[in-house]
Specification:
Largest sheet: none
Structural class: mainly alpha
CATH topology: Histone, subunit A
Helix content: over 70%
Radius of gyration: 23 Å
Order of helices and strands: HHHH
Shape: flat
C-alpha cells in the first residue's frame, strides 16, 4: 500500500482540510496552511491504518469482500479506549445525579454548598 502522503486517490486534500478547519474553528481563528496540511496527513494515515486493519479482519474471516462489518470492527478497535472512558464518565454522571437526588430527598447532604465553591 502506498505511503499515506502519496495516494493517487487521496480521500482528503490539504485544501479540503483547510476549509474544514476554517469552518469548524470560527471566524475569530486564523488557520495556517501548515496546520491543515499536517491534519490532512494524519487523517490519511489514520484512514490507511483503519483500512489495513479492516482488511486483516476480512482475511481472518475468509471473506471475499471488505464489508461494513469489517470496517466497523476496525474503527471500534481503534477507538475502544475512548469509548471506555466516555462510558465511564456517563456512569459517573448518572451516579452523581442519583446521589444528589437521594441526598436531596433525605436531606442527608446539602449539595448547594458544594456546587457554589
Amino acid at each position: 500500500m502506498p505511503d499515506a502522503t502519496d495516494w493517487d486517490a487521496s480521500p482528503i486534500s490539504d485544501n479540503q482540510m483547510h476549509e474544514v478547519l476554517k469552518e469548524l474553528t470560527g471566524e475569530d481563528t486564523n488557520c495556517k496552511k501548515r496546520a491543515s496540511k499536517y491534519l490532512a496527513s494524519q487523517m490519511r494515515l489514520s484512514i490507511k491504518q483503519l483500512i489495513q486493519r479492516a482488511d486483516e479482519i476480512r482475511a481472518e474471516r475468509n471473506d471475499a469482500q471488505l464489508e461494513y462489518e469489517h470496517m466497523e470492527q476496525a474503527v471500534d478497535e481503534a477507538f475502544a479506549p475512548y469509548h471506555l472512558m466516555n462510558n465511564f464518565l456517563d456512569i459517573m454522571d448518572d451516579y452523581e445525579y442519583k446521589l444528589k437526588k437521594e441526598a436531596e430527598s433525605t436531606q442527608i447532604l446539602d449539595f448547594s454548598e458544594i456546587e457554589d465553591e
